[in-house]
Design brief:
- The protein is built from 1 helix and 27 strands.
- It has 352 residues and is mainly β.
- Strands 12, 13, 14, 15 and 16 form a 5-stranded antiparallel beta sheet that branches. The protein has a 4-stranded mixed beta sheet with strand order 1-5-6-7, with no helix packed on it. The chain has a 4-stranded antiparallel beta sheet with strand order 8-9-10-11, with no helix packed on it.
- A hairpin with a 3-residue loop joins strand 2 and strand 3.
- The protein is globular and about 55 Å long.
- The N terminus is likely disordered.
């Protein structure tokens, strides 16, 4: 790959806290991201509060894990795991993620285990060496600070940049979803008390190619019934119905790019009616009404919430929070943008 879409001279502070939705508990209540940023939603009204600086310094993907009471356990940029004291966890270096992977890692409890966690990592387009790997963190080790007891177990060597976890229909097991580089194959790996499945469920996205899905994230609606991703080569956003019993993805909508060249990150509204998108060339924050019956009507519903026509990259990753608001990272900014009422249409969503 000779063309680099992430220029190293751009200092990008992006938020990509890749977690599955467990807001009924508090495992996702601490966000550690960007350059030493740390905010917590573990407050009386779930209002975000700035915390002491973390020791993370990353421009894209990151993952934070807390216990059921919202106490920070560990965080990672996909390469290094740090404990709650912001120190490198025992055996926590040299994981096979990448600081330039849009979604460099994702974490959740090992099914049927109390103090063990999976940390899945995924490589970046600049590397293309490792694909998806997982490590297991045991929080009973090292006097409760945790240690990586198993590291860098290969899952799929063809996946790059994007990963999401969705609970199985039985609410015990998990699905790990990704997309294979330059292919329209989406993969879903089952994770249960027997471990990670050796063979994935394979579904197809938009036909055509070569496919370059690495350029965007993959996200799930809060109920796990819809999945969104993007195909840069075909210039479409792909929306799928997801069967969380079988792991099958069914392509539902194709939203053609209109007025921009790169759909970067996505988030569903809590009611799954609206899709929010950050784009590059030009840099925008968009809202689509994906409840409409046709692709054409969805495209026509596009509302621009924010726009920057001078930056190369500006609006970064976008994430639904425990307070049911959506937050957006911006390049070289000390602040996050916020969509205060994401279930409402257009300007009524109260973008700030």
């Amino acid at each position: 790959m000779t063309i680099r879409y992430k220029f190293l001279w751009v200092i990008v502070i992006l938020l990509e806290i890749t977690t599955y939705n467990m807001y009924s508990q508090k495992e996702c209540f601490n966000w550690i991201f960007g350059r030493n940023c740390y905010i917590t939603f573990n407050t009386p009204q779930n209002n975000p509060k700035n915390v002491v600086k973390s020791n993370i310094d990353t421009w894209e993907g990151c993952v934070s894990m807390s216990d059921n009471n919202g106490n920070l356990l560990f965080y990672s940029d996909g390469v290094t795991v740090l404990d709650k004291n912001h120190k490198v966890m025992q055996n926590g270096a040299n994981l096979r993620g990448n600081f330039s992977s849009l979604q460099s890692g994702i974490s959740f409890k090992v099914p049927s285990e109390i103090d063990k966690y999976y940390l899945f990592t995924i490589d970046a387009i600049e590397s293309q060496r490792y694909g998806i790997n997982y490590s297991i963190i045991n929080m009973q080790m090292n006097n409760g600070l945790g240690a990586v007891e198993q590291k860098n177990v290969l899952v799929d060597g063809k996946c790059i940049e994007k990963i999401v976890a969705v609970p199985h229909k039985n609410k015990i097991d998990m699905w790990i979803l990704s997309n294979r580089y330059e292919d329209n194959e989406y993969v879903a790996y089952l994770v249960n008390n027997k471990g990670v499945s050796k063979s994935p469920i394979i579904s197809k996205g938009v036909e055509g190619g070569p496919h370059k899905h690495w350029s965007s994230s993959i996200k799930a609606s809060i109920d796990g019934k819809m999945i969104v991703s993007s195909n840069l080569q075909e210039r479409v956003i792909e929306i799928f119905d997801f069967n969380n019993d079988t792991g099958e993805l069914i392509l539902k909508n194709k939203i053609d790019y209109y007025g921009y060249n790169w759909a970067y990150d996505f988030e569903f509204s809590p009611n799954s009616k609206y899709l929010y998108v950050t784009t590059f060339y030009p840099c925008q924050v968009l809202q689509y009404d994906i409840s409409l019956p046709t692709n054409e009507k969805i495209i026509q519903s596009s509302t621009t919430l924010d726009f920057n026509n001078t930056a190369t990259f500006y609006f970064g990753s976008i994430q639904l929070a425990p307070d049911n608001k959506i937050y957006i990272a911006k390049d070289n900014s000390q602040y996050l943008s916020v969509i205060n009422s994401p279930n409402d249409k257009g300007s009524q969503c109260l973008y700030d």
